[in-house]
Amino acid sequence: MNIVNITECPLCGKTLFKKSATCIDHYVTGESFDICRCLHCGFLFTQNVPCESEIGKYYDTSDYISHSDTHKGIINSIYHQVRRYMLSKKARLIERISGLNKGVLLDIGTGTGYFSGFMKKRGWQVYATEKSPQARNFAEKQFKIHVDEPEMLNDYKKNSFDVITLWHVMEHLERLNQTWEKLNFLLKERGILLIAVPNANSFDANKYKNMWAAYDVPRHLWHFTPSTMQQFGAKHGFILAETHAMPFDVFYISILTEKYKKSRSPLLKGLINGTKGWLSSMARKEQSSSIIYIFRKKQL
After folding, report:
1. What is the rounded distance in angstroms from the CA atom of residue 105 to the CA atom of residue 82?
2. For each of the chain's 300 residues, which pLDDT tens digit applies?
3. Phi-psi bin for 172: left (phi > 0), alpha (psi -120 to 50), beta?
4. Do residues 259 and 73 touch, judged by C-beta distance below 8 A?
C-alpha cells in the first residue's frame, strides 16, 4: 500500500516533528496510526496514512454516516436529529454573512447532499462535489442535485462562487495547500468561505486524548486548532472574519468516544462529558469541539 509520509509541515514548511499520540481506527480496521506535531508551529497531522487513491476501504462501512446516511443505533439517530436543526442555522448564517438570499454556492464534500439540497430549496444555485459514488448517487436521487466528482473542481471558472462551504471536509483532503489555493481561485472577490472542522484543542480533545473520536484516523489526515486555521487562511490570501462554535458536536463526539472506550453507559457518560464541554465552550469559544471558520479574501 502506498502511504503519505509527511516530511515537511504543510503550514510552516519546517521538518522537525514529534509523535503526539497513537490512535486506533475504531470504524473499520482496528489499525493504529501516529499523530505528529510540528515542533515549530504546532500543527498536528496523522502520519503514514494510505494515499488518496487507496484510502477508500477505510470509509467502506455502513456505519460511516456522512457517506451511508445510516440511521442505525442511538448515536446515528441523534446525529440526524441535530442535522435537521443545524441545516436551518447554517443557512441563516450564510445569508447573514453574505448579505444574499440567493446566490451561487459550492459545497465541497457534500456527502449525502442534505445541506446542498436544503440550500437549493431556499433558491440558491448549488454546485456540489463528493468523492464517494454511493453518497453521490444518494444525493442525486434524494435531492435531485447534480454532484460532481472532486476532479471537476479544476473545470470551474475563476471567481465563480458567492459562497464556498466545506462541512467537516478539510481534515480529509490530502492536497491541503493546493485546496486552499483552489478555494481562493474559485471564490468571488467579496465572497465568503465557510470551513467547519474538529478542534484538536477543544475541551473534549484534551479530556479524551488519544481516544478522542474526532481524531478519526486515518480518515482525518489534518487536526486543526483555531490558531492553525487562521494561519492557513492568512497563508493563502484570506482574512478570518468570524468563528462560530458547533454546540452539538461535543455530545456526539463524547458519546462516540465513550462507545470506543467500551464504557458501560456510553450514552449517559457521553451526555455528562458533552455537557461539561458545552459549558466550557460557552465560556471560551475556542474550547468548542468543532468550529465554523468564516473567511473573506484579502482585498488588494
Report:
1. 23
2. 799 999 999 999 999 999 999 999 998 999 999 999 999 999 999 999 999 888 988 987 665 545 445 555 556 666 667 777 889 999 999 999 999 999 999 999 999 999 999 999 999 999 999 999 999 999 999 999 999 999 999 999 999 999 999 999 999 999 999 999 999 999 999 999 999 999 999 999 999 999 999 999 999 999 999 999 999 999 999 999 999 999 999 999 999 999 999 999 999 999 999 999 999 999 999 999 999 999 999 987
3. alpha
4. no
Query: Identity (one letter) of the amino acid at 245?
Result: A
CA distances from 245 to 3, 11, 131, 241, 287 (A): 33, 23, 27, 14, 9
Amino acid letter, 118: F
Distance CA 164, CA 221 (A): 21
Residue 50 CA to residue 221 CA, distance in Å, equals 10
Please give the grid coordinates belonging to residue 286. Answer: 475556542
Burial 74-98 (b: 16+ CB within 10 A, else e): ebbebbeebeeebbeebbebbbebb
Report the run of H or E that residue 36 belongs to, with start and end. Answer: strand 32-38
